[in-house]
Specification:
163 residues; alpha/beta; Transcription Regulator spoIIAA; 3-stranded parallel beta sheet; 6 helices
């Protein structure tokens, strides 16, 4: 899609809009040309809807995010829980509290739980592995993790546990 824009552009809008696909969207240059033509917003939106439905359907996946800890050993400048942030009351949830919250989610319509937090040394791979297994066993939820960087072997263990 990086070829030159057809001239006059308006005569080629239908072909260009039909070329919108996933996972290779049109270039920024082509999208700008489509949008600047002024009369193709509705066909472009219709094509986007068609592509979305072809690849993702009409499903909505709800994910219950449980912030299991706001402690972190890292100091990533973009992050609100980085270790250098002062005046924040730090916490690490207990396994019992995490499980209690996980058990609530299916009844609220969630099918996935996201265990999210900083790189907290209290959440060892052994502990996370046991939590993941127990959450799946007790709730049937899909478990996703967002807990910072880990070694390949740690990720592998957590994947084998079901995350």
């Amino acid at each position: 899609m990086d070829q030159a824009l057809p001239q006059p552009f308006t005569n080629h809008e239908p072909q260009l809009i039909a070329s919108v696909s996933w996972p290779k969207p049109p270039s920024q240059k082509h999208l700008e040309a489509i949008l600047q033509s002024g009369e193709c917003t509705a066909p472009l939106m219709a094509r986007a809807r068609q592509v979305r439905e072809e690849h993702f359907g009409h499903r909505v996946h709800l994910r219950g995010i449980v912030e299991i800890s706001n402690r972190c050993t890292q100091n990533c400048l973009y992050c609100g829980i980085r270790c250098s942030v002062r005046g924040v009351e730090r916490y690490s949830m207990s396994d019992a509290e995490i499980l209690r919250r996980a058990r609530m989610l299916p009844g609220l319509g969630y099918n996935t739980i996201v265990l999210q937090g900083g790189e907290d040394p209290l959440f060892t791979t052994d502990r996370l592995e046991a939590l993941v297994s127990r959450i799946i066993e007790e709730t049937g939820l899909v478990v996703t993790l967002s807990l910072g960087a880990m070694s390949f072997n740690d990720y592998l263990r957590l994947r084998k546990a079901g995350a």
